[in-house]
Each structure stands twice: as structure tokens, then as C-alpha cells.
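yo

u said u wanted the structure for the complex thing, so here. seqs first:
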Amino acid sequence: MKHQLDNIKRIAFLLALGMCNSCSDFIEVGYPKTEIVTDAVFVSDISAVSAVRGIYSLMMTNNSFTRGGMEEFTGIYSDELISHASRADQLQFFQNALTVRNTDVLGAFWREPFRYINNANAILEGLQQPNGVSQPVRKQLEGEARFIRAFCYFYLVNLFGDVPYLSTSDYRITSIAGRNSVEQVQHQIEADLLVARDLLTGDFMASNNERNQPNRGAATALLARHYLYTGQWTQAEAMATQVIDQVSTYSLVSDLTRVFLANSTETIWQLKPVVPNANAPQAPLFVLTLAPNPTSRRLSLRPGFAGIFDLEDKRRSAWIGTFTNAAGSWQYSHKYKVVSNATVTEYNMVLRLAEQYLIRAEARTHLNNLDGANADVNVIRQRAGLTAQNNPDVASMLSAIELERQKEFFTEWGHRWFDLKRTNRASAILSPLKADWQETDLLFPIPDAERVINTNLSQNPGY
Amino acid sequence: MNWENSTWTNPLSELERKYSGQIQNLVANTNLSYEIVKNISFKTNLGYTSMSVDENIIYPLSSRDPDFVAGGTGFAYFGDNKLKTWIAEPQLDYKLKVSKGTLLLLLGSTFQESVQSGKTVEGSGFSNDALLDNIRAAATLNIIQAAYSKYRYMSGFARANFNWEEKYILNLTARRDGSSRFGPGNKFANFGAIGAAWIFSNEKFFPSGVFSFGKLRSSYGITGSDAIGDYQYLNTYGLTSYPYNRSTGLVINRLANPQYSWESNRKFEVALELAFLKDQISFEASYYQNRSTNQLVGLPLPIMTGQSSVQFNLPATVENTGFEFQVSSWLMKKSAFQWEANFNITVPSNRLIEFPGLEKFPAYANRYDVGKSVFTIKGFQSTGVDTETGLYTVADLNEDGAISSTLDIVGLKQIAQQYYGGLGNTFRYKGVDLTLFFQFVKQTGNSYQRSFIMPGAASNQPIIVLNRWQQPGDQTSVQRFSDFDPTAAATTAYSRSLSSDDRVTDASFIRFKTAALSWQLPTTTAQRVGMQKLRIYLQGQNLFTITNYTGLDPENQVSVSLPALRMITVGLDLTF
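structre next:
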């Protein structure tokens, strides 16, 4: 009997020991093998770099404002493009009748920039913690993350007006954030770009000598645009000059058909295509290999658009294509040529030198330096095979710049839409063209899906 | 293949695409039992399962629109997924006689692991469609998905069961459960239960003859749930689909809440079981009350946080209560003819008891009210089709001149079962057996019209849309036809009507669920012709349904997919 009890005690003891000692170890499953926990991202240069490059990869993978979204949707929203699409959400853009449930506003223009901002914020936080990233790489990555955050907010604030300014990745804070004023957001954009400009280098060493990650030149160029949009003419001129003066790095490409090639000398920053067989997203969006139809070829240039170009303007032949069949003839944006090819020759041009000339021309006009302004505009005109102009006064100079920007940057990154907005010309230009145009269409609606979950988000007037 | 200049997707292209899948499944189970000394035994249940799925889908060039694949090739997906699970449940039993009672003690534990892994590879650049099955013939391979997750669960428990002369029974359970699905510090939780029963028909003072059996029982217990995904407590980065600048991209794919823990359910039940006339009639009535708290949910986040949800414990308490009655009776128990009937009914009800800080959870505040059932549909109040515009309208409840999806909603109706049950009859005469079973449900449900899209859209529509509004002054219940709708007025009106009380309807039904008739040859006759058993049967399922519900099926309330099928089976069962 004693022996039996000993046995029982021994077994009970072993069982209890087995349960209580190994148990907390047993249910430790470690980390998933196919994901990386945040702390592990910033242990080395190479994985920290992957986190920044991951954002560019998303920009060129998702249905995003960065992947043809600005071109398509602001093109049909303004006066550049005709939409042949049958999808209701796309028609809403074309008719300037966006609803608070529009899925493209939510997806391409709201979710995507905030996703990149969230990643950029997490990178900035990761780099602030003790980490294994070397000092030069840390500077470069902080510069790029700040650039990305500023870049995304630039588009958000110009599309939506007041938006929540999020500087943390903590969902407990970001999920209840309300909207900050345009001025507050612009202040943060400027602050980020100034720091980025200090931290980044002027060469392309960090991006394998390709121009596909923003460097100091990109931060300076975006700052120039920011100062132009906020009417800070002296700074706009200074920043544009800093870019233009780097003549060994940046120069206009004289052959207009080669401007958008990968790493062309005009490139300040391009996004590199990542999807197999895809080149830049613009060519498959615009180039008409078939007549326009509701699904695959849904865009053409507004009839008469080519008429704004002089006949001898080389941009007209280099950048505008025509498709003709028995049913009719349509013109399309032909800046990008490669619809599909396994070899990538065209990158998605985000910032290019020509813009800096026209930014400086506009800033100089406001600073009453008309000679300088004419000189800058003429650089662009001469490349297009046009004669030099001499606009005698501020008003004619400004309208010349508006027209030159319209011709130079059509179907590029929403330049036209933003120009119409910032110069208060949208209503004058669009109300004759668009039956349903209203002054409140200047801002996109804040998506209803967001406002239902975050009641601190207010709505824009008119929605 | 005709692509009509890329204006449509030719449905025949699907026929060119081929899918093949191979599933392998291994299941092994062992029970070991060893009596160490008298009354003490050691038992273990061991189990192992392994499942693998090998899939491959090919997209030949001929299945693709040539306009989109200029210079392209066919492509193929190669998938490979595995799931391996093992479980070990060692336990120790101890049986002890204490005076007139029996004490059963049980000490046990459970260890479980489940590992899921898989990958999908996309191959492209095949030089020839004939080589699409060969992964090596692909010029480019892209791993588009690679998944891995490991789950571990363990539990230690002790149970005591005391039975005094088959009259008084007491059950006590205590357990400590641990799950890998919770973050550090939250992995373990304690649960327990207590149950007691009194079989009063075994009492001497109870007059015999009235009841053949009588039992009163009650229990109360707390259990936990970890039915969520793995690793939700970790902030993680995942790989982008494509590399950038020669490095694989890393992006945030989960925002984590490290604080959530076990969901808990408190269950209380009290029941009375009675049997009369030598068990000819038996009756059971019970009342249950289940309260769940700390519900594990994906809390919806505004997408501007970067993600759409985060794992969370809701502070809500939801109560499910109900009465259940069951009667069964041998109406006829003669040797040649037997007739047994049984009937059961359940009356459930649901209530949100409390939700502290509900207003801080807008995603829930729009749907739930404390004190009401969680099945209450908070939606617009329908005011029918406007006779002037021909559009669905809803009431502007707060009279601010605008319709708001947060301010103008009210919970008028609920989609829930009021009661349900079944009636079964079994008749037996010699070798003939007939079973009939009816199911009945009193409930409200989604109108069949929810299964369709907006009137006028290019899609199949129910016949009622022919009564649509057509000109000012028409009084009808269906909005005007609309397809091209740039201002979204018709779409908005339609989507509001979808979330209005108009779409809740009575979906009660009585269904003749089963009828089974069989005849079995008497065993002695069967054996004479060299068989052990010969049985012929005819079975019918879902034979008919009585309902006022329009649409295919009041049970699933979806009118565009197959409802439960009526099946008639004829069979012959021979055993040699």
C-alpha cells in the first residue's frame, strides 16, 4: 500500500510538473516565419532599406494616386481628358459629381497615401529607437521617410483641403484624429522637406545610381513646388535655382520622345515599375491601340486639346498620338510609349527639371523679374522648337506660364488640376465645359466609410 | 476567340484554363489506457493529422485577350499548402468509494500544435503552352504568397465527480488554459464549472409509480475562446509582392494590440427531466442563460491608420437566454406495431446587457443599443417610393433636412428566430419502418429582394420590378429603372432602401424535412438465403416547405444560389 501511494505521488508530481513548468514555454511559438516583427526590421542597414523601398514598391503595385491615379482621375475631373468608362465611380469624376461613397476617392486618394504615411511614420519611429542601422544609412532613410510623408501630404492637402496630420504609427492616436487646417499641414510638409534636404545626399549612390529614390535634388524640387503653391516666391525661386544650377546632374532632354525614359538626364525622381511586363503605368492607361471603350481603353484627350499647341510645337507630334478607325478619330497622351514589355525602358516620372524652370518663371514674375521669367519660359519653348517670347507685363507673363504649364505637363501627376485650383481659375475654365460644375467641387469628399468609424472627421462643404 | 476588341471577357476563355488539385489526408488516433494500481489508471489520447494540397492552375495564351498580352506568354500558378496537427491528452483517473458514494477524480492535460504552411508560385514566360504544367519551363518565377503559422494550445485541468447513491451528483471542474494566440502576459486564463443534480425519483420518500424517472439539475461554468488568427499581438512587416531596386520591400501588414486576451462565456443552466408510465412519456424542460464578455473581434479602424482593423476585446456583455422543451412518447408499443413521437421547441432571446463606452466605438454604436437584441437591424425607416421622383425614400428622423447614415437610423425590427423546433414520428410494423420529421421556425429574415441589384441594372431581376415606378403619380413599391446613374441619386436611394426596415420580412416556415421508409427482411429468412441482412429503403429530404416567404428559401434567404435541395434516395442494403 505504501508502495502504491509512492507511485501515485510520483506520477501526480510528474504530471503537475509537466503542466506547470513547461507550459509557459510550450505555448511560445516564436515569430511567424513569413513576416518580420517591427523590432527586427531595424537591426541592419539592408532590412531598414527594404522598409523604405517597400513603400515605393507599393506605390507601383497598388491602384494608387501614384500609379496613374492622379493622371486619370484629375484628368477627367478637369479639362484634359474624356472618360469613356461605364463604371459609376469613374463617371462621378468625369461629371464632377463625386459622392461620399466613391471607391476611387477612398482607395486611390485616401487609403494609399495614408498607408505610405503610416509606413513612413513607423520607419521614423524605428530609426529613433536604439537600432542596428549605420549612421549614413540612418540619415538617408530618415530623409526618404520624411520626403515620402511630405510628398503624400502634398497630394492629400491639395485634393481634400484639411486632412488629419498623422506623425505616429500608433493606431490609438491615428484612429481618432480629426482634420488639421491646410496651413498646419503645409507647415509640416515644409518642415519635413527642409530636414530631408539636409539629410539626403545629392547623388544617386543610395539607389544603385538610378534616379528612382528621392535624393536632395528631389527634396529641393518638391520644396520649390511647395513654396510656389504657398506663394513664397523668394524661396520658390531659390530652391528651383538650386536644382537648375546642378547642370552636370540635371539637363533638359532635347529629344522630346526620350524625356520619360528611365534615368533620363531630366529626371529628378522617377518611380520604377515593379509588376512583371509593366513599364510606366501611363502608357497602358492612355495609348489607344483600339478605339476608346468602357473598360480597357477608357480615356482620350478632350477634342480640341491639341489645338492649344502651335503647329511647329514639337510636343504636339512627340507627345500626342492619334487613333483612327471607321467610327472616328481620337487623340491620346503619348508621352509614354511602352504599353507592355518585359524589358523596362520607361519609368514613372514624378519630378522633372522642366517644372523647375516654370516654377522659377512664375516666382520671378511675382517678384517682378520679367526678364528672368521670360528667359526661363523660353528655355522650355526652345526645347519644343518654338521661338522665344517676350511677355511685357505680369498679367501676360502669368497667362503665358499657365498655358506653357498646360502644354508641358498635360496628363502628368494632376498638374493641370492643381494649377487651375491654386490660381483660382477652375470655375472660370470648367463651368463652361462641365454641366454639373460647382464651386464646392474644388475639394474631394472625405470618404463616408472613414467618417462612420472616426466621428472626429468633418466633411467638406457640398457633400 | 472573339474578344470584341477588348470590350468584354469571353466566358469561353474560362474553359481554356485548367485547374488540377491533389489532396492528401492522413489521420491517426491512439488511445492508451493503463491501470497502474487498483482504481488508478493512466490514459492518453494521441492524435496526428496531416493534410497537403497540391494545386496548379494554368492560363494558356489562348485564354487571354491578345490586346493585353502583346509579347506575353501563358502563365501558371503552382500552389502547395500543408496543415499538420498533433494532440496529446494525458490524464490520470482515480476512483474511490466513500461510504455510499463514489468519488471520481481526474487530473488531465491537453497539448496541441497545429502548423500551417504553404506557398504559391506564379510562373510566366513559358515558351510554349504545352509546357505550362512544368514549373521548370517558366522563364520567370515569382513567389506570390508564402504563409506559415504555428498554433499551440495547452490546458491543465482537474475534475471531481461525486455520486451519492445515484441520488445526489456533484461535479466540479477547474482548468487553466494557455494559447499561443495571445501576447505575453495574456496567454493564460482560469476557467471552471460547477454542476449538481438530484435524481429525486430514487428517493425512498418519493411515491413510486407516478414517475419512473425524475431529475433536477443545474450547472454554472465559465469557458474561454481563442478562436482568432495567430500572431495578432505582433506588429509585423510583410514582404511586398514585388521587389524595388533589387531589394525585397518590407511593409507594415499588421497593427497590433498587445493587450487582448481570452474571450469568456458564462453559462448557466437549470433543467428538469421527468419520465412517466414506465418511461412511456418523457419530458425535459430547461432554461439557459449564456453571457459572453470580452468578445474577440477585429475592431474596425479608419483606413487612414494604415490598416482596416486590429484585434480587440470588446467590453460588451451579450446575453443569450432561452427555454427548451422536449417531449417524447411511445404512443403505441405493441410488439407488432410501434409508434413513437417526439416534439421539441426552443424559444431563444438575445440582449446586449452592457457596453461601457459604446459611444467611443462608432463602428458599433451605429449598430447596437444597450438593452436591445444584437440582431436588431438599425437602419433607415422606409417611407416607400416617391411618387414624383420614382426613388426609394426613407424618413428624416431628426428632421434636419438631410439623410444621415448615423443620425437617421432606428432599430425597429430584428432579424432573429422567435422560436423553432421539430416534430418527429416513427412507425414500425414488423420489418417496415417509417420516419417522418417536420421542422418549424418562426423568424424574421432578409427579404428576397436583397439578393438582387438595383432595378434597371443589367442583371437578372425578380419579376416584381415590372411593377416599377414609370411616371409621376405612380404608386408602387419598386423604384424606377436606372442603369446609367452619374449623380448616384438612384444608387443612393437604392442602397438606403437596402439598409432600411423595408428589407426585413417574415421568413417563418414549416418544412417536411425527412421521410424515410424501409423494409428489412426478417433475419431468419435472410440467413436462409445466405445473407445476414437485406434492407430496402426510400428516403426523401426537404420534401416540401410551407411558407409565406417569397424567394427560393426562407432558411438561407438568398435567392441567387441553390437552396437546400430536395433529395430522394432509393437504396438496397445487403450484408453477407
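The longest strand of chain A covers residues 320-325. Chain A has one domain: 38-278+349-453.
cya
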